[in-house]
Amino acid sequence: MRTNRTPALAAVAALALTGLTACSTAKQATSDAAHAAAQAASALPADALAALGLANTHLQSQNSAKVTATIRMPGAATAETMKGAMAWDSGMRFTGDVTGAPGMAALSTDGSLPAVIVGGAIYMKVSNPTALAQTGGKSWMKLDFAEIAALSRNPQASSLGGGMDSALKQISPVQTVRALTGDKGVRSVGRETMDGQATTHYSGHLTLDQMLAAIPGLTGAQRQTLGKADTSIGLTGEDVDIWLNERALPVRVQEHTVTQKGDLDIDRHFADYGVPVSVTLPNSADTFDLAAALKAAAGGVGGHGPAPVRATPGQGAGRQPSGGSSVAAAPASGSASRARSRAVIGRSPPCSRRSESALP
């Protein structure tokens, strides 16, 4: 591949991932079928914090699920939709598809972007002929966030890159539930039927500190970087709504965050906890490694090298699991909430929004 095309391709990839790391969601009205959900309460503690604590315990053993997510970034005309299967037991694994992401047309011919997330790297299936010409005909593009961040001369970007695996884990319901267990103001809204299940609806508010504290695996420097990035865009916290079923497992999670650029909303629906998630990495011979190409293109991102890569971690999307059940797709977004930096697929507690502001 000709190196002078690398910056342009990197920009396209960044656009396609911009919302994949987002992390909040809008609130929803209560269900009209509350009477059908009456049975949910019998299995959940009456106290909201106790119920969320039980959910936190159950999620330690239920470490995979199918997910359908909708992300609306600040100022975006349309929302991104992600559907797939994910596992969070040992590092982040996701496989599915994403539609509606900015810049996706430059990579995809049919409006859908198959993607696979493993650890801190996302693999995206390229189908647009122009993009394929830039990848030398290779049909998969790999973005390793830590490697790309390491190429940057911006210390904030370098710090964020190393925490991307933790950020991507925030696509799962685990981090949100963990954070809510520290919200003494969380309350029960009532019993509702959600996605055909009897559930209890809870509502709470997380401060930026609570969001950051719930992200595992980050160093003190990474937490500080994410916090500064979030604060710089006016992010101070997020409103969270969560629906728990009789097994104290999240059926739906909504997060709504206000920033200086507008509202960030993320709505995630979970089903089939414990579903097998088999992720097969693309053949290396058919994979274009963006970080390696940037290194070869001229001394790294930023400074005197190629145009800066403002790749916001995405809620990556992916393909249908090769061995598990059939699914569709999802990526990541933001900084603190989903280190989100918080998505998919997903910076997310705050996710991609933050990391984006910290990049060069």
From TrEMBL:
Region (Disordered): 299-360
Segment forming the signal sequence: 1-26
Keywords, sorted A to Z: Signal
Keyword Signal assigned: yes
Domain of life, source organism: Bacteria
Signal in keyword set: yes
Chain intervals with Low complexity compositional bias: 322-348
Protein name: LppX_LprAFG lipoprotein
